[in-house]
Amino acid sequence: MQIIKYQPAMTILIPLILVLTLAAGGSGLLDRNGSGPFSFTTVHGETVQMSGQGVYFHDTLFTASLSWGTDLATLFVGLPVLLVSAWLYRRGSLRGGLLLTGTLAYFLYYGASLGLGIAYNRLFLVYIALFSACFYAFALILTSYDLAALSRQASDHLPRRGMAVFMFIVGIGLALIWLSDAVAALLGNLVPTVLGPYTTVVTYTLDVGIIAVACILAGVQLWRRAPFGIVLFATLSIMLILVGAMVVGQTLMQLSAGIHLTPGELIGKDVSFMIMAGIAIWLTAVLFRDLDKKSLQTILKGKDL
User: Fold this and answer.
1) Which of 139, 155, 163, 283 is the most buried (most CB within 10 A)?
2) CA–CA dist 145, 5 (Å, integer)
3) What are φ and ψ of residue 48, in 5° steps?
4) Would you say 230 and 222 are in contact if contact means Cβ atoms under 8 Å apart?
């Protein structure tokens, strides 16, 4: 029985995402034209350092260095994973489909961050197109699973409650990481430290309003042994692994740009994301092994999967 249905639209959407990512990420990473950092006074009366380079010319140096790191990880880690997972998905692999679902979630996050969080530049239409292609590709594959068949595919030995606890920890942890700054700013009648010249911090909205809530929902679904919990867990864990690579890229680019990071910032962000990504790799491997074992057992019994 086919657990994930192939969507023909992916034949167009995946290559489109590839081309748009190369255009957006390649330009962001390689274009360094400009005179370099300059001071700017924000509408809140604070002085910040602007990038003054390339497509991120009108972004702060802090945001631009994060974007360079994100582009680096997306081009050299995200795109290869996208191509491999799309190939496996095209061959009818359930694990390939789960891998592609999580990878598309990461690319949707990437496209949303560019389209909503980066200061307007000449690639704005590319950002919109990338966000749109990722959104519809993700929506198509997320709704392609036969949940009843997936429930039968997973064995009773799958550590659902351990996976659920991990999702709860990630969801609560993400909320605490970002809300600590936002709540402190509200209580002190200040603006968040990373706001700079922007009107809002898009990352807070995406991570707290969507990702953290999705993690908690995945945990609830897994705890109840609902099959959709498996899809959500795989999606979020794979996305978390790619975000771990992204955080490494961001830190490297921030340090190379001369951004000072305190030990507390390095531990709070980098180490915490590395630990979460490591656990995500382990639990995703456990899930994939479980699905593969069940497939092998069914094949040996002569049944058609």
Assistant:
1) 163
2) 7
3) -130, 160
4) yes
99-127 pLDDT, tens digit each: 999 999 999 999 999 999 999 999 999 99
**Angle 261-182-180 from CA coordinates, rounded to 5°:** 65
Q: Is residue 101 part of a domain?
A: yes
Longest dimension (CA), the chain: 72
Question: In whole numbers, what is the pLDDT of the chain averaged over residues?
Answer: 90
| 305 lies in some domain | no
Do the beta carbons of residue 71 and residue 114 sit within 8 Å?
no
Q: Is the dihedral of CA 191, 196, 202, 203 positive or negative?
A: negative
Q: Which residues pair with 49 in a beta bridge?
A: 39
CA 223, CA 162: separation in Å to the nearest integer? 9
| Assigned domain for 5 exists | no
pLDDT at 286 over 80: yes
Torsion, Cα of 182, 187, 193, 195 (10° steps):
60
Rounded to 5 degrees, what are φ and ψ at 279?
A: -65, -40
CA–CA gap between residue 203 and residue 212 (Å, rounded): 12
Residue 116: C-alpha distances to residues 13, 29, 111, 130, 216 (Å): 21, 18, 8, 12, 24
Is the pTM higher than 0.85? The answer reads yes
Total domains, the chain: 1
Neighbours of 228 (CB within 10 A): 17
Q: Give pLDDT tens digits for 200-224.
A: 888 888 999 999 999 999 999 999 9
